[in-house]
């Protein structure tokens, strides 16, 4: 097993870890504010996921490049300044691309600065790893975060508005569950996904243990 201060070699697990084993939302429960607040539609969820992934990749890359030059005494403050710089870029970019989307995401774009997933990756991973591994790992974490937001946003929009990415899915007589696009809907859907995700993880772990037990008995 890789020790915390050892440099990691790039393997498929470097990327896949963020999708499953260390998924920021379904396993580590990080970044809950945007997860619950902006996932009332799939397009909002996708936009927030992509914006967070961009900030995560760029800030982690810069931290990795300058990890040996940043004094330990001011490393957290330095990381926040780096993250805030890329959040500002994302903020103005979204505002220029779509004002409606910018208004829908609201202050949660600026709150990416204090997203514990991004700061945590900078401190726990990027500050100890080379650029290549940092980019691959950051991309995996960002994709995992985006997928999690899409899972919530899609379910909430389908049940709460009868559409997906703004396209109607049902007939006119469909009665949407309005609660799903309201704040309580975020907690309901998140709880459902956590139950499903963790149930499947436990099932896989149990099957793996059974296979290992059968192999041990056979040998």
Instruction: Summarize model confidence as the mean pLDDT.
Output: 89
Low-confidence parts lasting 5 or more residues at pLDDT below 50? none
- The run of helices and strands is HHHHHHHEEH
Strand content: under 5%
> Number of helical segments?
8
Q: From the helix content, strand content and strand pairing, which structural class follows?
A: mainly alpha
- Kindly report how far apart the N and C termini lie: 25 Å
Helix content: 55-70%
* Radius of gyration over C-alpha positions, nearest whole angstrom: 20 Å
What would you call the shape? flat
Number of domains: 1
> How would you write the strand order of the largest sheet?
1-2
The count of strands amounts to 2
Topology:
Blueprint: H1 12-16, H2 32-37, H3 42-65, H4 75-97, H5 99-105, H6 116-126, H7 131-161, E1 163-164, E2 167-168, H8 183-218
Antiparallel strand pairs: 1-2
Helix pairs in contact: 3-4, 3-6, 3-7, 4-5, 4-6, 7-8
Descriptive terms for the model:
219 residues, two-stranded antiparallel sheet, flat
Structural summary, described in words:
The chain has one domain. The protein is 65% helix and 2% strand. It has helices at 12-16, 32-37, 42-65, 75-97, 99-105, 116-126, 131-161, 183-218, and strands spanning 163-164, 167-168. It has a two-stranded antiparallel sheet. Helix 4 (75-97) crosses helix 6. The longest helix has 36 residues, at 183-218. The radius of gyration is 20 Å and the shape is flat.
